[in-house]
Amino acid sequence: xxxxxxxxxxxxxxxxxxxxxxxxxxxxxxxxxxxxxxxxxxxxxxxxxxxxxxxxxxxxxxxxxxxxxxxxxxxxxxxxxxxxxxxxxxxxxxxxxxxxxxxxxxxxxxxxxxxxxxxxxxxxxxxxxxxxxxxxxxxxxxxxxxxxxxxxxxxxxxxxxxxxxxxxxxxxxxxxxxxxxxxxxxxxxxxxxxxxxxxxxxxxxxxxxxxxxxxxxxxxxxxxxxxxxxxxxxxxxxxxxxxxxxxxxxxxxxxxxxxxxxxxxxxxxxxxxxxxxxxxxxxxxxxxxxxxxxxxxxxxxxxxxxxxxxxxxxxxxxxxxxxxxxxxxxxxxxxxxxxxxxxxxxxxxxxxxxxxxx
Length: 358
Prior knowledge:
Blueprint: E1 20-23, E2 27-28, E3 34-35, E4 39-45, E5 55-59, H1 68-71, E6 76-77, E7 82-83, E8 88-92, H2 123-136, E9 142-148, H3 150-161, E10 166-172, H4 180-194, H5 211-225, H6 228-234, H7 254-267, H8 272-284, E11 296-302, H9 310-322, E12 327-332, H10 340-343, H11 347-357
Parallel strand pairs: 5-8, 5-9, 6-7, 9-10, 10-11, 11-12
Antiparallel strand pairs: 1-4, 2-3, 4-8
Helix pairs in contact: 2-3, 4-5, 4-8, 5-7
């Protein structure tokens, strides 16, 4: 079992802050609200070729950021599937996030953080902001867009929001729309935050956020990201630092200690309101057709990813084929669960590298 499966974000963290920031103007959101000014945080690697035709956009999942070469280090980098020696690679922090792009923690025009006033943005709104960035970088169309989980939804939306804007789309461990169970997982996480007394209807002080609620939300998320096999391999029923029970409601088992530790780390780098906004954007996303796209598609899934199971990727393949687009699906047999999309370089990396190079 790959030890990185349990490392959370140690291997994902940026060595140095190489973020750049761009103001992309006002945004009229799909929900009807407006944001007077949007700043997007981004990073780039590699160089544009003479025809400006070698750009690949890497879109992150729920808790990611612009540092794609860090959190997806097995896929993005020199000689990797998304080869920074060959392609001009762009990583962004999505709209509504808390790692540099405008979101609930950003200051409003009145000088106070947006907090509860921040609108419920959509995957489409996120892509609109990314499109403005890419255009400002002097790129008319992308060679590729890719991502796992929520990142896959953004890549898919690129191909539909502005047909011809991206040649190749790779979605891994993703879906065209959440089902009832996926919505339910997100709702439990949101409720954990909103039932924390410190949430204060979203208008909590910066120095006193509802971290207990966010911690529980993260624990719930971890259960859906990993597999039964990975939990059993790592922890089984072992007690934490002892040979037997102490007959207490405190930490008894190793798995309890692990979940608590990961949750506490997450609260130090993520904003509760961003968690609410982004999970709601995930739940709202719903694409029932790929007609009108001009992109080629690659869909990869994992055998025991029970959060985004293979049948959802097969549904995407069917939609692509019905719309007459070149498309391929590859199922990868690994025991890691949903987080396999972060870990697997050999199988999905080989398929994706060939897809982009072809």
